[in-house]
Design brief:
Number of helices: 10
Number of strands: 19
Shape: globular
Bound molecules: flavin-adenine dinucleotide
Distance between the termini: 36 Å
Helix content: 25-40%
């Protein structure tokens, strides 16, 4: 199995307890769900609440994929500006998608509240920061579009943004008041707890190795036995293996890495004092935020090279911190990790019906907390009779899928080169 590094800092800093449970087949279920991340667990929670018997099958542990490794920025909608989403999706689905996913953070925070999920939730927004004057022009355009739609976003000039983020390294920013931050593993485990409370079964450490149509049922074959299900939802996303032919070819897999410092105490108080999360406009994106314990987390595209004490990535991080927060001085790192992201050719997610009663939402392009939660809810609606035309995205089959270019290695080389350059200059 690849990627055997640490799952993440969140894996041990999350207050919500991990849940592990061996597999035992329980006759015929309404829905078998493959993958214990936001998509799978939200499908299970919403499905169980609607009276479906749901069984989640996770190959490793809850939150093993992107869900337990991410930066924890609960952002609204997609990376793409709303006008681009509307142009790509058309007049029916475009505005519906933007509205539904624009409300995503509100819905995520309502679940956190309802189920009392302990995940360091903050609701003070996130900041998209301009790494260059051109980046600021791009943010001006996004600001105008969101304002036209009546959404609560503020364009921040250079001085304003410097005060909010604790450095004058950026040229301005866009503050989105709908957004916030969480401990993503905490949220994921909380969803698992809520799903079990609603009646769903969750099995961990069990890999699904085959899906076979058997009359009106699906035979879900695992490495530990077989389960029968009326419907199957794959929530495997960037961690999709060979389970379904060609599914892992509809996206390009890239890595994203994170480093967390040890708690910095009051010396870091000037960094994002409002506790927002931040990412920048650079095509090779950079992000930072603090956690509830005063650690600074920073990261970018690519894999971790080395570990918290030595190697390229910690040199990159030291250089970045010295450049943007010189007053911090030397810092020590506590944890490093990376995870996989599924990028689609047009940067839009997909919902595929792979065969009758076999669905997968996939390709979140690095924005999955709200997307996975909302698609999980949509899957539960679909399986309890919602007309598919009312979904936020049209359902397609794999025959319409364009194969994503196999460029993971090329990207990886470019991202590592970026770490090398920025660890020097
Ligand atoms: C480093 C990083 C930073 C990110 N930052 C953010 C962010 O700040 N905000 C944001 O919104 N999004 C972010 N994302 C994206 C987000 O994490 C993902 O889009 C999201 O987690 C996808 O959730 P998921 O449930 O669909 O899939 P995943 O969480 O990836 O879960 C897939 C699961 O399927 C399991 N699986 C795969 N195959 C099988 C099988 N055959 N049998 C059983 N189980 C199987 C895997 O073990 C895995 O646990 C980031 C991603 C990364 C990697």
């Amino acid at each position: 199995m690849e990627d055997r590094g640490p799952v993440s800092l969140w894996n041990y800093s999350a207050v919500e307890a991990d849940y592990q449970n061996g597999f035992s087949a329980d006759g015929v279920v309404d829905v078998a769900i493959v993958g214990g991340g936001f998509t799978g667990l939200s499908t299970a929670l919403h499905g169980a609440q609607k009276g479906l018997s749901c069984h989640v099958l996770e190959a490793e542990q809850i939150g093993y994929g992107g869900s337990g490794r991410n930066c924890g920025l609960v952002n609204a909608a997609l990376w793409l500006p709303p006008q681009t989403v509307r142009d790509k999706l058309g007049e029916t689905y475009g505005p519906r998608f933007i509205k539904c996913f624009g409300n995503g953070p509100e819905y995520v925070f309502s679940l956190i509240e309802k189920h009392q999920i302990q995940c360091e939730a903050t609701r003070t927004g996130t900041i998209h920061a301009a790494h260059s004057p051109k980046g600021f022009t791009e943010l001006e355009g996004r600001h105008a579009e969101w304002k036209r739609l009546g959404e609560p976003v503020d364009l921040l000039g250079r001085h304003e943004v410097s005060a909010m983020i604790g450095t004058d390294a950026f040229f301005g920013g866009l503050l989105d008041h709908r957004a916030g931050t969480i401990n993503p593993m905490g949220y994921c485990r909380g969803l698992a707890r809520a799903a079990r409370g609603a009646g769903a079964t969750i099995s961990t450490g069990v890999r699904v190795v085959g899906l076979v149509k058997d009359g009106s049922l699906w035979r879900v074959e695992t490495d530990q036995g077989t389960l029968s299900a009326k419907a199957v939802v794959l929530g495997t996303n960037a961690y999709t293996d060979d389970l379904w032919p060609d599914l892992n070819r509809v996206f390009t897999m890239i890595h994203y890495f994170q480093l967390a410092t040890k708690p910095l105490g009051s010396s870091a108080d000037q960094i994002l004092p409002g506790k927002q999360g931040l990412w920048d406009t650079n095509p090779i994106m950079f992000n930072y935020r603090r956690d509830a314990f005063g650690r600074l987390l920073i990261g970018s595209m690519g894999k971790i090279v080395g570990n918290a004490d030595f190697g390229l990535s910690q040199r990159w991080a030291r250089k970045r911190i010295a450049k943007i927060f010189p007053a911090l001085g030397e810092v020590e790192f506590e944890e490093t990790w990376h995870g996989k992201i599924a990028m689609t050719p047009d940067h839009l997610p997909r919902v595929y019906e792979l065969e009758e009663n076999l669905f997968t939402p996939i390709g979140y392009n690095g924005r999955g907390i709200t997307t996975g939660t909302m698609f999980g809810q949509a899957m539960a609606d679909l399986l309890t009779g919602m007309d598919p035309v009312d979904l936020p995205l049209p359902i397609t089959d794999l025959s319409t899928a364009r194969h994503a270019p196999i460029m993971s290695r090329l990207y990886q080389t470019a991202f590592t080169a970026n770490q090398v350059i920025k660890s020097i200059f």
